[in-house]
Design goal:
The complex is a heterodimer. In chain A, 40% of the residues lie in helices and 12% in strands. By secondary structure, chain A is α/β, with parallel strands linked by helices. Chain A has a five-stranded mixed beta sheet with strand order 2-1-3-15-6, with helices on one face. In chain A, strands 13-8-14 form a three-stranded antiparallel beta sheet. A three-stranded mixed beta sheet of chain A has the order 10-11-17, covered by helices on one side. The radius of gyration of chain A is 26 Å and the shape is globular. The N terminus of chain B is likely disordered. The chains are: A alpha/beta, B mainly alpha.
């Protein structure tokens, strides 16, 4: 291959000069363009009767509602009941597994200065931690005059705790998700076992199942929300939030280590699964083989009473009380429990209010269609009565579930990041590779603290 | 991430070994050269609006605080010290390493093989088959791979089990990810490059190949000593384009992260980290710093390929 000098050495130089001049001009233009913030004109700092400054209202403006696939039914039900309210329903992942899509999308809209949805549903109960903060805070305060006090008082006591920041309520809880101890009464009877009431007895039973009935399981750690079932329920201080910027985690605390040892032990005996309850392999391997499974109350509709999941026989599955350590008061963990938020930028707050009041409290959705225990007390009671009347669940379903709902441990915080995502990326692959959970604890500890720090927490 | 070479990029590629009579270049009149400016103006405008301008804006942002005051190197230091930065660099480097080497070697070998096929119909159908996966856009091809990678539902589950993977989580273990992403990227992008390389092989004059054959060179020696050196520019062109695309790894880990319930982290690649900086932490300046670092690395490596590949040399 022959080479040749380019003709006219001046020509590339000239191009370079032109390019450099253009670059400087553009840089100057860019500098001018960004000097005004897009949102500066929107909020003048004044507060209204709602505790925030609403944008100009238009009662005929359509409201955009973001829901996950499961909650689409709620929006549809609202459209049926209120055809006069113009709404546009968009589905997204609901922030599942700590994907952060709600926050990342809102941040993008903040940059653009427009485009925010009016009402958002999220499966995560830690969204208020960021949605209430910053100069572009997304979530409208709900208890400063926007929603009636009588309506807010209708929620089960404690239900709004995850969406309350510095004493102000920024969202409504869709459902309560305390963990209960699910078990199969028919299998228990067949194997001649008694239902454990402590973690220690649970561990002993798991070991026995591994030996006597291999293939059957007493739980799974394959989901990103496993720490919320096992570590929250074990009172492990690995997610402690103080105020808006203090965070601490201690995986070497006695409760943390005890729970990690328990899980390791059961994994070794084969009675603890590593698959996610939503994976096809879980359904394939364990349909009819779930002897016990600590987990949230929404497993009822999502797994047991679901023809495309475990499809349990009516009258076999019971929800037992949460487990506790021997000699200690039992507490419940909590897995999600969806939340609804209204945007401060909404141009039709009246319609948004109608919608969130409807989807959280109206029996036509919360009692007739919802899979989980409604957070709104009245709807919750009716939902429990309906479940009891259906005869699908064995034992005292309504009583145990309500008891669990009031026992959720309050030592687990709601930080601006997702514990689920941290667990999924550090612990799940380690367990899958056969590493022990106790050995993984330091790595998990570091990952949690790093994540907290990156999200602006002072970490202890 | 655009993996397949775009049509515009292919059109702008060097003209390879095509011999152009020297007289032609001297006979270019002022009128023709003015028209050539018209032809490139569309590209220049778009490059300015969507390439140069955003780049300069990012450079400016990376040196300022969010209130617009000069920040020096603060954003760069913060970004590099972030606990996710170095792992992300490692992930991207591993992926680009695996992918680039396999792409360059396999595409070249496959193109030479396809070119050596005597029957025209067979050669063109093979090229077409190679090209088909490229028609699937990034996210769609990842969704397809989600099924292929899950031993429970995969049509090739026997292959996965032979490697010892019995669950989806085992398949997507952190150590396997660079190879998995490389396989996905190769599968969806290589076909386009094979077509491009085939075109380059066609441009090698028949007389040259005939001379080689007369001198007693077999297919392999011809490939090694005649075809490969004449393909040098094309290979380095492919390397540059693929390097730029590869360092911007985003769609594959993002989709896989959602599908694996976050087992594949959402901060796997540098581009994902830049995305999290911007839209999860609200730190657009830090995000710009990561983007500029990525640009610098790609530029340096591209210059290396340009010089080593003789991309700007004239035949």
């Amino acid at each position: 291959m022959t080479t040749e000098h380019p003709r006219g050495a001046a020509s590339p130089l000239r191009h370079l000069v032109v390019a450099a001049t253009a670059a400087v001009t553009l840089l100057a233009l860019a500098a001018c363009g960004s000097s005004t913030s897009p949102s500066a004109s929107k909020s003048d700092g004044s507060t209204s009767a709602f505790g925030f400054a609403p944008v100009k209202q238009d009662s005929s403006a359509a409201i955009t509602v973001w829901v996950d696939a499961t909650r689409e039914a709620a929006a549809k039900q609202f459209q049926k009941a209120h055809p006069e309210v113009p709404i546009k329903v968009e589905t997204y992942d609901g922030g599942a597994d700590g994907s952060g899509s709600f926050q990342t999308k809102v941040e993008a809209f903040n940059q653009a200065g427009s485009g925010w949805p009016d009402v958002v549903f999220s499966t995560q109960n830690n969204e208020a931690a960021w949605a209430s903060q910053g100069k572009d805070a997304f979530a409208a305060p709900l208890d400063k005059g926007y929603l009636d006090k009588s309506f807010l008082d209708g929620f089960t006591p404690g239900a709004l705790a995850p969406v309350t920041v510095d004493g102000t309520v920024y969202g409504l809880r869709n459902d309560l998700a305390p963990t209960v101890t699910w078990y199969d009464t028919a299998l228990m009877k067949q194997f001649g076992y008694t239902v454990p009431t402590t973690w220690e007895a649970y561990q002993a039973l798991g070991e026995k199942v591994g030996k006597e009935h291999p293939g059957y399981i007493v739980g799974t750690v394959g989901d990103s929300f496993a720490p919320e079932i096992y570590f929250w329920g074990a009172k492990a201080p690995v997610n402690v939030v103080k105020g808006t910027d203090q965070f601490s985690a201690n995986t070497s605390d006695a409760s943390s280590v005890k729970m990690a040892t328990l899980i390791d032990d059961l994994l070794k005996s084969g009675s603890m699964a590593k698959e996610s309850v939503f994976s096809p392999e879980f359904v394939q391997k364990y349909t009819g083989k779930v002897l016990m499974m600590p987990g949230p109350v929404w497993y009822s509709g999502a797994l047991f009473n679901n023809p495309s999941s475990l499809k349990s026989a009516p009258g076999t599955i019971a929800a037992g009380l949460p487990l506790g350590w021997d000699g200690q008061q039992a507490v419940a963990g909590n897995v999600g429990g969806g939340t609804w938020y209204v945007s401060r930028h909404s141009a039709n707050l009246e319609a948004a209010k109608k919608l969130i009041e409807f989807v959280t409290s109206d029996p036509s959705y919360q009692v007739d269609l919802a899979q989980g225990l409604p957070a709104y007390k009245d709807a919750g009671d009716k939902w429990l009565a309906k479940q009891a009347a259906s005869g699908f669940f064995a034992g005292d379903f309504a009583k145990n579930v309500s008891a669990a709902a009031s026992e959720v441990w309050d030592g687990w915080g709601y930080p601006r990041f997702s514990q689920e995502a941290v667990w999924a990326k550090t612990v799940t692959p380690a367990l899958s590779a056969g590493k022990s959970l106790v050995d993984t604890l330091p790595e998990w500890d570091k990952a949690i603290k790093n994540q907290a720090q990156a999200n602006g927490y002072k970490v202890k | 991430m655009t993996l397949a070479p775009s049509r515009a990029a292919a059109a702008g590629a060097p003209t390879g070994a095509r011999q152009r009579p020297r007289r032609a270049s001297r006979s270019v009149t002022g009128r023709w050269s003015r028209i050539s400016y018209l032809f490139v103006s569309g590209y220049v405008l778009f490059a300015l609006a969507f390439g140069i301008l955003p780049t300069l804006y990012a450079v400016r942002m990376s040196f300022t605080h969010d209130d617009g005051t000069f920040a020096g190197l603060t954003n760069y230091v913060d970004a590099v010290q972030d606990f996710r930065f170095l792992p992300a660099v490692g992930h991207v480097a591993a992926f680009v390493g695996v992918w680039l080497v396999s792409l360059l070697v396999l595409v070249t070998v496959l193109s030479l093989m396809v070119h050596a096929i005597g029957r025209a119909w067979l050669s063109s159908s093979v090229r077409f088959v190679y090209y088909i996966p490229g028609a699937l856009a990034g996210a769609a091809s990842v969704v397809l791979w989600l099924f292929l990678l899950n031993p429970t539902v995969s049509p090739v589950s026997a292959v996965l089990r032979a490697f010892g993977f019995s669950t989806f989580v085992e398949t997507i273990a952190p150590g396997n990810l660079p190879v998995i992403f490389a396989v996905i990227a190769f599968w969806s992008g290589a076909g386009g490059w094979i077509v491009v390389m085939y075109g380059a092989l066609n441009s090698i004059p028949v007389e040259v190949l005939e001379a080689a054959r007369l001198d007693g060179a077999g297919a392999v020696r011809t490939a090694l000593h005649v075809q490969l050196p004449m393909l040098r520019k094309w290979i380095s062109y492919m390397a540059i384009m693929s390097l730029a695309a590869g360092t911007q790894l985003f769609v594959e880990p993002r989709v896989l992260s959602q599908a694996s319930h976050a087992v594949v982290p959402n901060d796997y690649s540098l581009n994902q980290l830049a995305y999290l900086f911007a839209f999860k932490q609200g730190d657009l300046n830090g995000s710009a710093a990561i983007a500029v670092l990525l640009l610098l690395v790609t530029l340096v490596l591209s210059v290396f390929f340009v010089i080593r590949g003789g991309l700007f040399e004239r035949d």
